[in-house]
Amino acid sequence: MRFVIVTGMSGAGKSSVLKMLEDAGYFCVDNLPIPLIPKLSHFIIYEEQTVTKAALGVDIRNGQALEELDDVLNQLNQYEVVPEILFLDSTTEVLVKRYKETRRNHPLVNEGRVDKGIEMERERLQFIKKRATYIIDTSHMLIRELKTEIDKIFIQGEHYNNFFISVVSFGFKYGILSDADLVFDVRFLPNPFYIPELKKKTGRDKVVYDYVMDFQAADDFLNKLEDMLKFLIPNYIIEGKNQLVIGIGCTGGKHRSVTIARAITERLSNLQYGVKIEHRDVEKDV
């Protein structure tokens, strides 16, 4: 039997994930009182034997009972259940934005600043995060991208590495990427903008991609960047980091940065980590 506990930060996507799992045939229960988890497990395993996949939503709404989760998880061993814990995380900045968009109150703050409630919640959930089997940071994920990751883990049964890389191209003229962990300036490369037949195209087009990549400096840069990331990522993982945002910038965010972002994403896809690419400014001033 597969038994999944879906938990994490409020606003990080727990309800969406439970819906995805339900659509995939999982028996799903959200916000079940924690003391009832062993009883539900016993019922599913020994009485309702048609259920082979179950998912429970557990979060800060359980209040003080949340502290009992450690003991409850240990109790499940007597039913020969090995629970998988999926922890959904997101940055405070993104969570605040989501709360403002939905105009909902944070469970720990009925009135007052949302960010204070988020930090309180993050601290109280730290013990669960340490026990997590899977950690997914949804800060830069679209719903369809989150679904792809959920399908990999819980439907296709693929190996999942708790580290996700976002490669984002951008233009310095529109402002530096504020949430990047690493930023690389590729304005040292020749600019296709000044080639009349390439000016209105982007790094998504083969002719622009080939133009940029034909320069030896582009290949040399990618080799050095790949080597550095292969060194950094394992050390970031050791320190508990589970997401890396890499910004690749050029003047307008349409030619060189898009090309290099595509090229490094292709190389990183061979490293067994989750990788996605985003072009922040490629459609601006079209």
TrEMBL record:
Coiled coil: none annotated. The keyword Nucleotide-binding applies. Residues 1-154 form the RapZ-like N-terminal domain. Pfam families: PapZ_C (PF22740), RapZ-like_N (PF03668). Keywords: ATP-binding, GTP-binding, Nucleotide-binding. Residues 165-283 form the RapZ C-terminal domain. ATP binds at residues 8-15. GTP binds at residues 59-62. Gene3D superfamilies: P-loop containing nucleotide triphosphate hydrolases. GO terms for molecular function: ATP binding; GTP binding. This is UPF0042 nucleotide-binding protein. The keyword ATP-binding applies. It comes from [Clostridium] polysaccharolyticum. It comes from the Bacteria.
